[in-house]
Amino acid sequence: MQYRPETKELLSAIQDFMMKELLPKLEDDDLLSYKTLVSWNMLGVIAREFENSEYTNSWNEILESNLSVSEIEKQYPLDSFRRLTKKEKYQVLFEWNRNLAEMIRNQSIHSKLKNQKTVLDTKPKGKVWNIVKSQLKENLSVSNPRFQT
């Protein structure tokens, strides 16, 4: 059986070709050099997205937090979530995050108006804070790998 490179290796090979072979030949054309550098960078973003494409760790962290933000948590136990396609996993996480944001906004409005006790612990180092921070780190690791926290 022939060796079949993985997606990340293919993207890396294309990046290498662009930087070592193509870019030196384009040094007289500023616009094309710039577009080549932008393309090289986007290939890096795509490669990092493949590394973080499963979303399973994020969902596992959400389920372990027991925040009960929406019914989605009950609909998709970890085993069911693993069987979803990448696009479906993204949609589940997107919807859950949308519900979380709405819940935080509503809680903030109600607590200011009626001085009610808060349902979600949104203080630094609380469950919500840690989940949001973790997801932000994951997103930034794809779009800006030099970002350090």
Describe this structure as you would to a colleague:
The protein has 149 residues and is mainly α. It has three domains: 1-53; 66-118, no CATH class; 121-148. Helix content is 71%, strand content 0%. The protein has seven helices and no strands. It has helices at 7-25, 30-51, 56-65, 72-75, 78-82, 86-114, 127-143. Helix 3 packs antiparallel against helix 7. The longest helix is centred in the last third of the chain and has 29 residues, at 86-114. It starts with 6 loop residues before the first helix and ends in a 6-residue tail after the last helix.
Keywords:
149 residues; mainly alpha; 3 domains; 7 helices; elongated
Please report the total strand number as a whole number. 0
| Helix/strand/pairing category | mainly alpha
Stretches where pLDDT is under 50 for at least 5 consecutive residues are none
Strand count, sense and barrel status of the largest sheet are:
none
- Overall pLDDT score: 83
Count of discrete domains: 3
Query: In what range is the share of β-strand residues?
Result: under 5%
Helix content: over 70%
Q: How would you describe the shape?
A: elongated
The Cα radius of gyration reads: 21 Å
Helix and strand sequence: HHHHHHH
Q: What's the short version?
A:
With 149 residues, this protein is mainly alpha-helical.
What's the structural blueprint in terms of helices and strands?
Blueprint: H1 7-25, H2 30-51, H3 56-65, H4 72-75, H5 78-82, H6 86-114, H7 127-143
Helix pairs in contact: 1-2, 3-7
